[in-house]
């Protein structure tokens, strides 16, 4: 009778593995000895410049909830942010955005849905965020929550697009999300959101964001440590992640 362990020992041969780069999962690295005690730092980005921007108002409501949950929040004002490649990345608004991303432990992206997609302004903000800045990856391993507002019926097109971008930016994008339909009916004249299931969902999303941020921020470097990058020659890795243009 053949033992399953004997079969595995004969078939689990991995000649292509770089044994110097391959490592078993270290449980101790998943349980850091010390934890940060400062408030989670959350950056909120919205995708509209309208004076009564519902994506901005939704973000402001989310920021209030985040502060009640013990977070420090900052909302980026996208007015004056140029198009990507229109100016050098030394532009003050670009630097302001990048500095805020580096400062943050997590982010909230909230976009209106326009023509079945996120807005160009939302995409411009994301496009100004490089995968690497001088060897620092400003988004990798940080948390992300997604929201969208719509002028009509509930939709998820902008959310789905932003979720793809969150993965591309190597962000830990939480499962829960918020989509506010007919947003013009959901806010008072003073900009505060009315009580509703839509409001409750935003509370759910922010609560989940804070939990994921606290769970991962002290171990994010280990969570995103990759075999392929340990295996790659350092000079090739540096060249690839610091690519500035296509």
Termini Cα gap: 58 Å
Extract low-pLDDT stretches.
none
The CATH superfamily title? Flavodoxin domain
What would you report as the Rg, rounded to the nearest angstrom?
21 Å
CATH architecture: 3-Layer(aba) Sandwich
Largest sheet: 6 strands, mixed
Please indicate the count of domains. Answer: 1
CATH class: Alpha Beta
* CATH topology (level 3) name: Rossmann fold
Q: Percentage of helical residues?
A: 25-40%
Apparent shape: globular
Q: What is the number of beta strands?
A: 6
Mean model confidence by pLDDT? 89
The helix/strand class is alpha/beta
**Share of residues in strands:** 15-25%
List the helices and strands in order.
HEHEHEEHEHEHHHH
Number of helices: 9
Structure overview:
The chain has about 250 residues and is of the alpha/beta class. The chain has a single domain (about 35-240), classed as Flavodoxin domain (Rossmann fold). The chain is about 35% helix and about 15% strand. The chain is built from 9 helices and 6 strands. Strands 1, 2, 3, 4, 5 and 6 form a 6-stranded mixed β-sheet that branches. Helix 2 packs across helix 6.
Briefly characterize the structure.
This protein has 246 residues and is α/β, with parallel strands linked by helices.
Q: What attributes characterize this protein structure?
A:
single chain, 246 residues, alpha/beta, Rossmann fold, 6-stranded mixed beta sheet, 6 strands, globular
């Amino acid at each position: 009778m053949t033992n399953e362990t004997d079969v595995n020992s004969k078939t689990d041969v991995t000649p292509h593995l770089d044994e110097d780069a391959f490592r078993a999962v270290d449980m101790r690295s998943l349980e850091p000895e010390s934890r940060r005690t400062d408030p989670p730092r959350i950056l909120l980005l919205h995708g509209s410049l309208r004076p009564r921007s519902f994506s901005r108002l939704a973000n402001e409501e989310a920021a209030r909830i985040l502060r009640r949950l013990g977070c420090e929040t900052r909302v980026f004002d996208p007015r004056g942010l140029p198009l990507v490649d229109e100016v050098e990345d030394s532009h003050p608004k670009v630097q302001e955005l990048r500095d805020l991303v580096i400062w943050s432990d997590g982010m909230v992206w909230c976009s209106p849905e326009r023509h079945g997609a996120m807005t160009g302004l939302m995409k411009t903000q994301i496009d100004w965020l490089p995968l690497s800045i001088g060897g620092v990856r400003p988004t990798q391993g940080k948390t992300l929550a997604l929201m969208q507002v719509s002028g009509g019926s509930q939709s998820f097109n902008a959310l789905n697009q932003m979720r793809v971008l969150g993965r591309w930016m190597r962000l830990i994008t939480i499962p829960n999300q918020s989509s506010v339909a007919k947003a013009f009916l959901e806010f008072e004249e003073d900009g505060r959101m009315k009580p509703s299931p839509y409001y409750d969902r935003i509370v759910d999303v922010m609560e989940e964001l804070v939990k994921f941020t606290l769970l991962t921020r002290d171990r994010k470097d280990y969570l995103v440590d990759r075999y392929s990058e340990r295996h790659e020659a350092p000079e090739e890795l540096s060249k690839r992640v610091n690519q500035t243009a296509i």
